[in-house]
Amino acid sequence: MNTTPYWADTSRIKSFPALSRNVSVDVAVIGGGITGITTAYLLKKAGAAVALIEREHMVALDTGHTTAHITYVTDLCISELVKNFGRDHARAVWE
């Protein structure tokens, strides 16, 4: 059974060479997944000099093997949410 994601098997992402010299930037973003690429893009759009650093290939590891959805998981227990915000709001958070 082939478990290679369709998008990884049917598209080619440009390769970039390793840095051959030191560079000076405002921000270095580590990780070329969806979060790192989005962060670098928004920083660059805001005028920052940005270096996006990835050890392998862009979007090849975690991002490349998901269905590209982003989730938010709260670190509060449901009982704490009920205590602070009430049952209906706690339920809405978890749903």
Q: What's the topology here?
A:
Layout: H1 6-10, E1 27-30, H2 34-45, E2 50-53, H3 78-85, H4 87-94
Parallel strand pairs: 1-2
Shape: flat
Unreliable spans are none
% residues in beta strands = 5-15%
Largest sheet: 2 strands, parallel
Average pLDDT works out at 82
SS class:
mainly alpha
Percentage of helical residues? 25-40%
Order of helices and strands: HEHEHH
Strand order of the largest sheet: 1-2
SS element count, helices? 4
Distance between the termini: 34 Å
Number of strands: 2
Give the assembly state of these chains: single chain
- Rg value: 19 Å
Keywords:
mainly alpha; single chain; 95 residues
Q: Concise description?
A:
With 95 residues, the protein is mainly alpha-helical. Helix content is 35%, strand content 8%.
Please describe what this structure looks like.
- This protein is mainly alpha-helical and 95 residues long.
- It is built from 4 helices and 2 strands, in the order H-E-H-E-H-H.
- The chain has a two-stranded parallel sheet with strand order 1-2.
- Helix 2 links the parallel strand 1 and strand 2.
- The radius of gyration is 19 Å and the shape is flat.
